[in-house]
Amino acid sequence: IRCWSNIPFITVPLSRAHGKSFAHRSELKHAKRIVVKLGSAVVTRGDECGLALGRLASIVEQVSMLQNQGREMMIVTSGAVAFGKQRLRHEILLSQSVRQALHSGQSQLKDMAIPVLEARACAAAGQSGLMALYEAMFTQYSICAAQILVTNLDFHDEQKRRNLNGTLHELLRMNIVPIINTNDAVVPPPEPNSDLQGVNVISVKDNDSLAARLAVEMKTDLLIVLSDVEGLFDSPPGSDDAKLIDIFYPGDQQSVTFGTKSRVGMGGMEAKVKAALWALQGGTSVVIANGTHPKISGHVITDIVEGKKVGTFFSEVKPAGPTVEQQAEMARAGGRTLAALQPEQRAEIIYRLADLLTDQREDILLANKKDLEEAENKGRLALPLLKRLSLSTSKLNSLAIGLRQIAASSQDSVGRVIRRTRIAKDLDLEQVTVPIGVLLVIFESRPDCLPQVSALAIASGNGLLLKGGKEAAHSNQILHHLTQEALSLHGVRDAVQLVNTREEVEDLCRLDKLIDLIIPRGSSQLVRNIQKAAKGIPVMGHSEGICHVYVDTDASVEKVTRIIRDSKCEYPAACNALETLLIHRDLLRTPLFDQIIDMLRVEQVKIHAGPKFASYLTFSPSEVKSLRTEYGDLECCIEVVDSAQEAVEHIHKYGSSHTDVIITENERTAEFFLQHVDSACVFWNASTRFSDGYRFGLGAEVGISTSRIHARGPVGIEGLLTTKWLLRGDNHVVSDFSEHGSMKYLHESLPLPQRNAS
């Protein structure tokens, strides 16, 4: 890792044989030689007179960062005409005689007519200034830039082509960034319909075609075309139902309707697509993206190179299955059909899935064995994660039991009336439960999560997108196949989708128009990353499971060691495992305290001493680095408190609002703890491990939420529902309820319909 301008970066090995473009976005990080084409709309201001200096500075910074990583960067830039127009307008105004300006009056001076400026003259006046600006900006990053002006004729003359090629290679060898532009001061007007002239020739009529030509000539790995639109849409941007095309394949032109060209510049989107396809045919990967959006322009180039889903990626390799966007749409349509089924039909699907888990046990365990063997051979999973990855006959039996519980409790989940109000005569209002929509559940190393979450989504009528970890690929595949087999019972196979594409989690979190709720199931780091990446989509879950057990002075000797052992040692990797043990000061140096320590030693639990606990000991265990630590292993922190009140304060300061426990025989102290600890789950004389949807009788859970909005604690069917309002009237209008109207509001509460007793 090296640094420049206080920004760290990693020098990565970059090499590949040119001749074939990258098949997937994730491969773009291997691009060695990159051309960045800056459209006129990116480089110029909105008034088209002058440059967008802030954007340009950001682009130079990104190009410099990539150049200093060992890549070979080239820029094809517009902007000379706009820069020259600004300079010439200024010169014309200054050349007006002082007398004319004085006699015309201030108001007329403002309206002074500026003659239409010829583009070639503007280009001639702007080239030197534009290059001086680039040089000044690149100098800030200790990078040298060089200018090259070309015309279409330079590519038709074989000697000039060789000279240009040699010059560019020499500049790249010396770590210089070539800045290339069409020589607009002498370039002839573009010929109509001359974008493409056969397979091996592209006519340079604008900077799009110039960039494509250079990219192929220089055997470039990646061409990034920046414009003022997000990428390529299936219809003109801004029109109804226009959708951004994530990946564009040769032959897809027929499905696209092109709009007008950008506000400035020679080329429209059609020209960009033709140039991109020509470059793709020549072995160069292409991405068309927005270089003007203030929220992304500061990192758009680096995001593309990192393989993030930005703009439209041109690829020659079509995936075998649907895109993740198509899967989300299928899940939404399937979810709506699922919600329209009778409750008994949804329950039948879940019962069928439970049966399949036991009937197909051998196939499931065989697939899981493959995952375990691959994980062990690669050595990429820690022991706790391997344990989560493992399936067994007993696990599958428990899963089937949990699924049957979900089926039994799902009879009146969707469409249940929770409030009825008579607004006025013959005007009745109902609030009823409905599915949230499309859920995205992201989980690591836990294939048993797939049927659990699927059953909850089916019971609540939600469409579901599942993104599992690579380490559980074989297990997830067969479990998803069985889920779809169960869904086929009532023709809703598409309601649950497994994302198998090379989709990054961060890219999935940006699908705010397709996904209604994200539920992460995994490490605290995964949850934090998803919470950070989610753009406009709510995230349900918890980033940490820092669970406390407080041992009060009135604790029962028999209960203490049992509860602590179960909370810490039964499954230390679980999010509801004990992480910090709080002990009342009066219990230090008592037989009870010795029993606790002896039990932890026998169970091989590594102890970390909190600051107060360490102060009481002559030879203490290693002092804890942070009291806000989730160990996820056979480790825990012990800290001393002076009272139940101090225990509550400690939990509020260092806890994660997950699950916290008091062990005491004093009912008054226990009730104080239960009422004052602000966590999703608070227990008295019970293990933290009871914080679980199955143990709560929910059948299963999609996760444990520490949020204070919508759902909290283990989230079952109820947490996957929202409500809508149904108003039934008879020719009612609001004006009838005005001061002089004929009707009055009643607002009477009506009895709820009888719930299904089963």
CATH superfamily of the largest domain: Acetylglutamate kinase-like
Rg on CA atoms, Å: 33 Å
Largest sheet: 8 strands, mixed
Mind telling me the CATH class of the largest domain? Answer: Alpha Beta
Briefly note the structural class of the backbone. alpha/beta
Tell me, briefly, the overall form. globular
CATH topological fold name of the largest domain: Carbamate kinase
Query: What's the total helix number?
Result: 25
Which architecture of the largest domain would the CATH scheme give at its second level?
A: 3-Layer(aba) Sandwich
Number of beta strands: 26
Approximate strand percentage: 15-25%
Number of domains: 3
CA distance, first residue to last residue: 64 Å
Mean residue pLDDT: 86
Order of strands across the main sheet: 5-6-4-3-7-9-10-8
Pfam families: AA_kinase, Aldedh
Subunit structure: Can form homodimers/multimers.
Family: In the N-terminal section; belongs to the glutamate 5-kinase family.
Subcellular location: Mitochondrion matrix
